[in-house]
Amino acid sequence: MVTEVGWQSGRKLEFDPEKFRWVGLGGRAYKSADERRGMHWSGVTRFVLGPPPEAPAAFELRYFELEPGGYSSLEKHRHIHFIVVVRGRGKALVGTRVFGVKPFDVVYVPPATPHRWVNDGPEPFGFLCPVDAERDRPEPLSDAEWEMLRADPVTAPYVF
């Protein structure tokens, strides 16, 4: 007989492909409102997939989903981002580059690099993002970073 005894026994989140949601797991707002330049966002939902509360892990696995027309804040951190696209298509502004992304593409964002995720398509755009459980807060771009990205015709459409 197998008995579930906390995280040592394992845990499973069922996935419903028709709804593209994990059963019993609700989403929440991407983050609090922030009126600093570039820190606003629209149409982003965050799901924390793990670890379960009883697991002694130093990370969280998150799924972010952007509705059509949605976008994240334009920010930077001391920590890295390493995302895996699992749904739809979108754009990733990373430093001075803009990437078109699709399912199973992987994007690495180095520390202190400006970045923004944008859904410019007709369907939801979602990605997995592991993060340190203890991490620094997002910061807005400096005036110099903002102006450099605004002056570049490739990145300017994503700087708002």
Report on this structure.
The protein is mainly beta and 160 residues long. It has a single domain, classed as Jelly Rolls (Sandwich). The protein contains one helix and eleven strands. It has one helix at 143-151, and strands at 15-16, 21-22, 28-29, 42-50, 59-71, 81-87, 90-94, 97-101, 106-109, 115-118, 125-132. Strands 3-4-5-11-6-9 form a six-stranded antiparallel beta sheet, with no helix packed on it. Strands 8-7-10 form a three-stranded antiparallel beta sheet, with no helix packed on it.
Structure in a nutshell:
The protein has one helix and eleven strands, in the order E-E-E-E-E-E-E-E-E-E-E-H.
| Total DSSP helices | 1
Q: Find the count of extended strands (DSSP E, 2+ residues).
A: 11
General shape: globular
Content of β-strand: 35-45%
- Rounded to an integer in angstroms, the radius of gyration calculated over CA atoms is 17 Å
CATH architecture: Sandwich
The parts where pLDDT drops under 50 for at least 5 residues are 1-7
Query: What strand line-up does the widest sheet have?
Result: 3-4-5-11-6-9
The overall number of domains is 1
Quick one: CATH superfamily?
Jelly Rolls
Q: Helix/strand-derived class?
A: mainly beta
Task: Please identify the oligomeric state.
Answer: single chain
* Spatial separation of the terminal alpha carbons: 58 Å
What top-tier CATH class fits best?
Answer: Mainly Beta
Major sheet characteristics: 6 strands, antiparallel
Assign the CATH topology: Jelly Rolls
